[in-house]
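Residues pack. Consider this:
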Amino acid sequence: MGSTAISTQQAFCSLQKFTPLSYASSCRSLRSRRKWAVPARCCSPATDVATAAKENRRELLKNGDDKLEICRVLNGMWQTSGGWGRIDRNDAVEAMLNYADDGLSTFDMADHYGPAEDLYGIFINRVRRERPPELLETVRGLTKWVPPPVKMTRSFVSESIDVSRRRMDVAALDMLQFHWWDYSNPGYLDALKHLTDLKGEGKIKTIALTNFDTERLRIILENGIPVVSNQVQHSIVDMRPQQKMAELCQLTGVKLITYGTVMGGLLSEKFLDTNLTIPFAGPALNTPSLQKYKRMVDAWGGWSLFQELLRTLKTVANKHGVSIPTVAVRFILDQPAVAGSMIGVRLGLSQHIKDANAVFSLVLDVEDISNILQVTNKGRDLQKVIGDCGDEYRRA
C-alpha cells in the first residue's frame, strides 16, 4: 500500500473521536476495503489517476451465490416523479444514453417514481439496438417495490413484480429493493420470502432493502433472506448509517447504497454564501428534495453551521480542482460499508456527468478529512434527533 493510502487510513483511525465507529472496527474496515489502496500508486501520476478511476468505478454486491456489479455513482430517478420540472420522454432517454455512454450506467428507480420504470424500458431497448454488447453488460436497473400494508400473498407479490418487469422490459430485475412502512406488521417477512422464491424462479437477480433500520435488517438476515444491500439516507450532514447500521453490514457483508448524498443540491456552490432567512435573497427551495434536505439541515445544526460546512468543502474542492458535490460524494463513498452513492438526475433538464466522473479519481487526504470532520462534529447527532436509518419515514 502506497503512502497516500496509508496516510488516509491513519487519518481515519486517528480521528475516531469524530466518528461513531470504534477504533478497532473502523481500522479493520479500512484494511479490508481495497479501494483505499488504489489511488496510492503514484509512480506515474497521469496513468495512475486514470487507472485508479477505472478500478474505483464499480463495486460487487453479493450474498452467497447472488452477485451484482454496479457503478459506484448511481443515477437516481426520483426526479422523474414530478416536482422538478416537466420531463420530456425523448430527451430523458437521450440523457440516460449519455450517462451510460460516459460510464455512469447504473440507474435507480421505483415503482412509484412516475414514469421512471417506463423510461428505463425504452432506454434499455435503445441500448440493445444501438450500442455494443459490452455496454449492455454494464447497464444496471435497480428498482424498488413499496407495497401497501395488505396481506403479502404469493400471488400479490408476484403480480406486483411482474408489473415492474413489464415496464422495464426485462426478464429479470437486476435488483428489487423492498420498502415496508410499518414494522408492527410482520408481513414484511412474508413479502421477502416470496421475493426470494421469485429470485429462485429467475424473475429477480438480487434482493435488497431500502430504508430499513438495523434491528429489522438483523431479523431479515436471521430469517435467511439473501439481502445484498440496504439503501439509506447518508451524507456529510447525516452520518447515522455509520453508527449501528455500518457495523452490522461489516459483519454480514451487506452493503449500503446511499441517497441524499448531495442533499438535493444543497451541498453545492449554488447555496454557498446565501442567506435563506431573507425572502427572495437566495436560491429558491423549489423542489421536493431541496425542501426535504433543508429540514435535515435545520435538525442537524442550522443554516449558519451549514454555511461553515460549505465553505470548508469549497476549500477542499478548490484544492483538488473539483466541485463541492464531488467532494461530498467522495467523502461518503469512503465510509465503511458504502458500495455506492446516488446523485439525482433531472433527465433532459440538466446533467452532472463531469462532476460525477470526477468522483472516481478524487482522493481526500488527511488534511481534507480533518477539516471536514471538525465542522461536522459541531452538528447534532441525528441518531438521537431522528433515530436509526429510515426512522424518519415511520414517525407520526
Remarks:
- Confidence is low (pLDDT under 50) at residues 1-47.
- DSSP finds 16 helices and ten strands in the chain.
- The two ends are 49 Å apart (CA to CA).
